[in-house]
Amino acid sequence: xxxxxxxxxxxxxxxxxxxxxxxxxxxxxxxxxxxxxxxxxxxxxxxxxxxxxxxxxxxxxxxxxxxxxxxxxxxxxxxxxxxxxxxxxxxxxxxxxxxxxxxxxxxxxxxxxxxxxxxxxxxxxxxxxxxxxxxxxxxxxxxxxxxxxxxxxxx
Length: 155
Description:
Elements (H helix, E strand, L loop, with lengths): L1 H25 L5 H4 L11 H21 L6 H24 L3 H25 L1 H27 L2
Helix pairs in contact: 1-3, 1-4, 3-6, 4-5, 5-6
C-alpha cells in the first residue's frame, strides 16, 4: 500500500515544497500587492495561498499519475513538468521581490507555454493527469491578466 502511495506523497510534497519555498522567499515583499494599483476582478490577498495550495496538490497528483504510468513519453513529460515548476517558483520573486511587473508578465507567458506543453504531454500519457493540470492553466491565464494589468496600471 505504501509503495503505491509513495509517488503521490513525493510528487505532492515536491509541488507544495516548491510553492512553499517561493512563498517563504517572497514573504517580506508580498505587501506589494496591497500597495499597487490593481485591476477590476483582482481577488483579495487571502485567496492566493488557498488557490495555490489546491493547485499544487492537483499538480502533484497529476505528476504522480504520469510517474506511475508506462510509456516512452514519460521522461519528456516529467522534464517539462520540472521546467514549469522552476518557472513557477521564480515568477513570484520577479513580481514581488523585484517588482519587475513587465518582465514578470513575459516570464508568465513562458510559464503558460510550459504548462500547456506539460498538460498536453500528461494528457497523452494519462487523461486524468492532463485534466488535473487544467485548473492550473486557467489560473495562470487569470494571473496573466492580473500581471499585465498591474504592469500597465503601475507604470
